[in-house]
Q: What sequence folds into this?
């Protein structure tokens, strides 16, 4: 029966608070982490909808002074991380304080990076610490404690140990990663996702689904993340279609927010695979939004891994689909067909050119796909194979 | 399909390190928590087998001085907690230090209680802080960080937020409980369980199984603990019989240690039920070992809850048994039969008198069963019903 690899390390937020309206607990939670709160808001819309004022009120009621800042639109870039770190250093942020990041995956990643950099005695740029492009600098001090509060259901960044930081000149998209960067508290209030547009709901939801699937079949898969990824898929697959149609559906919003959290725990501990490897490249080389890139790459990545991942995919199929063929190959294929149909229902394109990728951009995507994600893929993928795959998808 | 209650709080160790021989990581893990280690050993056998010397060596290699102490045999009592706290206070234990507790559930609970008491400014007895029998004193300071290293696969104490403390005069068995008491790191090395006797293996294994089952059907059940409890049962049910026959079986020892850890996460967040309520009473009133008491009470408790817990029990049955009847009632009953057969295979008695309980002890068991565990039972159980149940089992 089940025989997962029994040698593992698991890191996750020591505390999760999840629930419709759970943002009202922010004061009591923050009071356990610090005496003053540096609050990063992910978007102007949060202010306009009154969410930031609500949070500041709750923190005030708990006796906690608040210093606020707002993230720029889009994924965090090196300059923004460095500027916010400097600005909060100037405001005296340090031991005894905590951070609260509210927003989509980009805002949470920005908050995680700044929380990590603030207490470092060396005053370096975040770039120095990045995988692949940095100078090998290491975080020597513990990050300031962080509460992560997602407002989309996708990246699961509220439970992961990395922050994805981009640069457009030179172009890269790399992680600041450390076991110490897992947020201390994940505070997930699915009510905050009700205003997310159908398109963003579809893309972020496919990101969460892709994370659950890739982390389940990766070579680094371990038992607890597998149990959580399976539950995430059970919840997210039937919920995504309906909630893209009607964003106010509460049980579906709850299911997706919970699945996204689980997908974050799963990927932080098991890694990902081919779809996320290419998605990172599409993000930086062609500015394709991350969730959309994942959605486009999921089915091709599963086809590419089918031969080596038949058994875990069949396991999933038997848990997730009402009826499955008896053979592993048949069951795994049925799951891929189910996902293909879901993508079609959501209007996810199947060709890279529909994403605005020019044909002459394909060669640059190959090396850019070889990041941390691809290293966990169930099998090695050569540059030639990657080039062929991208050509066939263009 | 799945629709768990989406309003929950989850607390667990922020870090888990699991693996055969994983004790070799103790130095690098402890170095992240403190500059000096107060090590509590659960038994003389650990010293005789060289385990304590190995751990001290690893801590030494990491540059960490070690102060050691040994737990008395049996479950921790008020006097022992207070004495060890005083002794380590005299040795200067405080902020900047960490604790390492190695042993069965009793040793881990002793370590958790001492870690909690050490930094409290008020120098009170642990009794003052206990649920039900204390003076209502509260832990105001964070406990010292603790690494919990279980040597049996049963209680899951390495992942819970309470320590069960006993007293024989007056007789009580109550919890010191606080969200802050979850060990910072659970370090689980299943190799340490190889020397556990067949009897203790059977009893502790049934404790873990009971914890997975009761937490799955409790009124306080929430989604993540349910996913983990299900995985725990998938692993533990087929492993327990074989490993009681041959304690050296590595995959089965791994499966049970992992299941026990999961059962701890599940119970800490979802609570338990009738079997554990009565088991606590049997422990304190008749000195029945905890795992054995759970094993005896599991099947009667499930029968008693069958009418209200048919649906989740049927869900479990369909995941756990190769073939199940179509109706919920049939499937749930098949699961109870499976557990009855497992208990019989393990030689678990079915009558309280076989545990040394005298008939005139039954009345005292009734109030003693009404603890925290029983409060989560899927339905309320009256004193009259409890008395009848105990009579029928005597």
A:
């Amino acid at each position: 029966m089940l025989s997962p690899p029994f040698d593992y390390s698991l890191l996750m937020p020591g505390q999760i608070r999840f629930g419709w309206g759970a943002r009202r607990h922010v004061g009591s939670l923050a009071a356990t982490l610090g005496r003053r709160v540096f609050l990063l808001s992910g978007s102007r819309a949060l202010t306009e909808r009154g969410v930031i004022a609500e949070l500041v009120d709750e923190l005030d009621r708990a006796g906690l002074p608040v210093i606020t800042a707002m993230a720029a639109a889009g994924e965090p870039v090196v300059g923004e991380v460095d500027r916010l770190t400097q600005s909060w250093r100037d405001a005296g942020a340090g031991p005894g304080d905590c951070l609260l990041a509210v927003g989509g995956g980009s805002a949470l990643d920005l908050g995680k990076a700044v929380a990590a950099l603030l207490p470092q005695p060396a005053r370096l740029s975040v770039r120095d610490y990045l995988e692949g492009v940095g100078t090998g600098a290491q975080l020597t001090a513990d990050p300031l404690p962080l509460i992560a509060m997602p407002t989309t259901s996708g990246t699961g960044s509220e439970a992961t140990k990395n922050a994805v930081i981009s640069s457009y000149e030179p172009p890269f998209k790399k992680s600041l990663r450390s076991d110490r960067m897992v947020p201390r508290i994940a505070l997930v209030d699915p009510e905050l996702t009700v205003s997310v547009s159908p398109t963003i709901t579809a893309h972020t939801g496919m990101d969460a689904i892709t994370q659950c699937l890739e982390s389940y079949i990766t070579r680094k898969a371990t038992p607890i993340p597998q149990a959580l990824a399976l539950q995430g898929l059970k919840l997210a697959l039937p919920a995504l279609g309906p909630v893209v149609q009607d964003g106010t559906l509460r049980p579906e919003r709850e299911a997706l927010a919970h699945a996204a959290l689980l997908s974050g725990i799963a990927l932080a501990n098991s890694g990902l695979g081919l779809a996320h490897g290419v998605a990172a490249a599409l993000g930086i080389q062609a500015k394709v939004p991350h969730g959309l890139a994942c959605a486009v790459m999921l089915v091709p990545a599963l086809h590419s891994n089918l031969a080596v991942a038949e058994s875990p995919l069949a396991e999933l199929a038997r848990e997730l689909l009402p009826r499955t063929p008896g053979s592993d190959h048949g069951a795994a294929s049925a799951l891929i067909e189910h996902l293909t149909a879901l993508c079609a229902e959501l209007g996810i394109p199947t060709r890279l050119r529909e994403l605005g990728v020019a044909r002459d951009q394909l060669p640059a995507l190959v090396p850019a796909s070889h990041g941390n994600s691809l290293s966990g893929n169930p099998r090695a993928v050569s540059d030639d194979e990657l080039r062929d795959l991208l050509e066939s998808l263009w």
Notes: The radius of gyration of chain A is 20 Å. Chain A has 15 helices and nine strands. Chain A touches chain B through 38 residues (CB under 8 Å). The beta strands of chain A are 8-11, 15-18, 36-41, 66-70, 97-103, 146-150, 162-168, 171-177, 185-188.
